[in-house]
Specification:
268 residues; alpha+beta; 10 helices; Thioredoxin_domain; 7 strands; disulfide oxidoreductase activity; single chain; Thiol:disulfide interchange protein DsbA
Length: 268
């Protein structure tokens, strides 16, 4: 009897701990939930929306890459999607052309970011000619670039990117969607941001694991889990910009018209 009581107490403590973990980040304050998921709800999926011309995305990039290298939970499926809205199409197309050409994506993302924000080559995310020249300078063949630029595969990915960004209800970048439904805007507190991504992306898996008895549980101990619900049940226990000083101002999804160079040509 004493043994059963101890097991029941341990189960109650574990459930209470799980409830506290779930309250670590609160809906409405730390994230919002979409009424209609942008993709089929897939546990462990994290989508990052960004734009090469976004200063906040550029500032976050080193920390994001570090998290991807040694901080991201191993179960997370990370997907990067360029925000495609207004005159951001050039940057989005450049993103997919790089991948269509089979170039080193991570290396090219870094080069593009640096070229735009440090090298004075902002035109590569707006102008087709400037973008193609940049790709050739970085090892691609002119004919391959031209073929990839107008390929059906790239256009289909652009269409999907546009639809996903619109469905995300984000009004700027950088931004994240977890499990196809949890919307998280970036902030300056990168450790907290990435912990939030890890926590939300793995919380469904955590619930499943909590429900499983351990291998060491004997038949007698398993029966003890069938205690009354009252014994195991834990105790129940859109801020403004001023209220969230750590929050970063995301890049507006509709940049000012003067940001677009005069030599901009429409994408082919």
């Amino acid at each position: 009897m004493l043994k059963k009581s101890i097991v029941a107490m341990l189960l109650a403590a574990a459930l209470a701990g799980g409830a506290q973990a779930q309250l670590k980040y609160v809906e409405g304050a730390d994230y919002t939930t979409l009424t209609a998921p942008v993709t089929e709800a897939k546990a462990g999926q994290v989508i990052n929306f960004f734009w090469y011309g976004c200063g906040h995305c550029y500032a976050m990039e080193p920390s994001l890459q570090k998290w991807l290298g040694d901080g991201k939970d191993a179960s997370i499926d990370f997907i990067r999607i360029p925000a495609f809205t207004g005159n951001w199409e050039g940057g989005a197309r450049l993103f997919y052309v790089v991948r269509e050409l089979g170039m080193n994506a991570a290396e090219m993302d870094e080069k593009i970011f640096n070229a735009v924000h440090k090298g004075g080559k902002r035109g590569i995310i707006f102008d087709k000619g400037a973008a193609m020249k940049f790709l050739v300078e970085n090892g691609a063949k002119q004919e391959d670039v031209e073929k990839a630029w107008k390929s059906l595969a790239v256009q289909q990915k652009l269409n999907q990117a546009r639809d996903l960004f619109n469905a995300s209800q984000l009004d700027g970048v950088p931004g994240f969607i977890v499990d196809g439904k949890y919307v998280i805007a970036a902030d300056n507190n990168y450790p907290r941001l990435f912990d939030k991504l890890n926590t939300l992306a793995t919380k469904n898996a955590a619930k499943t694991e909590e429900a499983k008895p351990t291998d060491a549980t004997s038949t007698e101990e398993a029966k003890a889990a069938e205690v009354k619900t009252e014994e195991a049940k834990p105790v129940d226990a859109t801020p403004t910009e001023e209220a969230k000083p750590a929050e970063v101002k995301t890049e507006e999804a509709k940049p000012a018209a003067e940001e677009k160079p005069a030599e901009i040509k429409p994408a082919a």
